[in-house]
């Protein structure tokens, strides 16, 4: 690579970072830094936690993705306007930089501990085993990730006692009310107990390391689990988490009782000392169901608790230094409409980490990367020519399209917002629920290695309806033409995941 090319440092290899790297690798000396050595298709993780084949297809080593430039496995610990300090102790200087560090969320969906693909697949498989053997599962959070998680469990393990607790008055608060109602109907029809309007006051370990032991004792004393976590979950009063406003959960993870002990119901559980998705402090040792404290003073027990609440921009490396003023009160990077970091025209912030007022979605992160790639090239050309700063494209929230969002309800159903319209049934199922865009994304990234043998969702794509196909069930007064229009928008979104759109 010629030395006279400008140096572009990309912080984070999620959808924004990898697309930007690929689009810029021919005109910049690109360095991509990420603590992991693999890219993960986050939106496939709820199903990947149920189906190892889906997990395997959704986790891709960076060395199998061409044209990323130099990839360094490290965490950026401090960023200035000129250079980045890495966890390895190295400092990398740059001419241009793009902050693509996304958001931190539940360990379920974005593992901080698993830095290799093998570790990630192992921890997911282990949790799947726990869910399979659990009699009861508690899902905390009724936003998209909690709803998807609960739906995947009952889709994969019919008959499992699943309870979903949510602090808000309705599910899927980001979507129109009828979307939440449709999701609730689906979940309840699949025997998920949905509990709204209450808070979980206790936090899972390690935030509250005393919880497991205390709860196990307390639960025994009050008889809430009484030898059957199923009964306990079904009969307990609900919990409440803050309304989930984005796709996942901060500080959340799964915890389960995980001691090598016999379950009161006779189940056997293995010790999982090193799996961050599974460790819990006290219940593990007791071999009892995990227990959460509820806002009304009662408690709720389950064999496995899956926290699916909240998410936070991941830009702590900008706090406390020269760039601290570039963060808003949520810790998101403040950007101009061009997606340049405020006050630093040679720096961009893309995807979940920036403060663009829109639902944070992977396909928007990728589209922002397309726009930024064109802008970086224009800036580099102008700089090389010694000319004035070029006029850059402006990002329109939601990519300038209808705000589209799809939430899967297992493999054969889903709910979807497209602008003011809500669909449930076959439209979201055909577009997202079957294939989760996994093969489309592998193709978009030009992944070198062949995908693992496709699971039921691995390569299915939009190929028709299967069991439980339901058709367009809820369009809330929309005429057929509007239904078709929205479906086309959604198809366009899906096509966008296939590289069919963008600014290049
Ligand atoms: C359950 C779930 C379902 C979802 N469903 C959908 C969906 O259907 N459609 C959709 O479009 N979106 C969906 N999303 C949202 C989507 O996953 C995110 O919007 C998308 O991943 C954001 O991409 P990003 O590149 O901005 O950040 P991320 O995907 O968060 O990637 C950030 C990268 O930066 C790295 N990083 C973090 N900190 C540092 C650091 N200090 N130094 C270096 N690297 C760092 C991380 O390791 C990571 O690889 C879903 C999310 C979840 C959790």
Automatic annotation (TrEMBL):
GO molecular function: electron-transferring-flavoprotein dehydrogenase activity; flavin adenine dinucleotide binding
Keywords for this protein: FAD, Flavoprotein, Oxidoreductase
Signal peptide segment: none
Record-annotated FAD/NAD(P)-binding domain positions: 7-202, 292-358
Region span, Disordered: 199-229, 248-275
Gene3D superfamilies to which the protein is assigned, alphabetical: 3.50.50.100, FAD/NAD(P)-binding domain
GO cellular component: cytoplasm
Compositional bias ranges of the Low complexity kind: 212-229, 248-264
InterPro entries: FAD/NAD-bd_sf, FAD/NAD-binding_dom
TM region positions: none
The family this protein is said to belong to: Belongs to the FAD-dependent oxidoreductase family.
Annotated protein name in UniProt: FAD/NAD(P)-binding domain-containing protein
Organism: Chlamydomonas reinhardtii
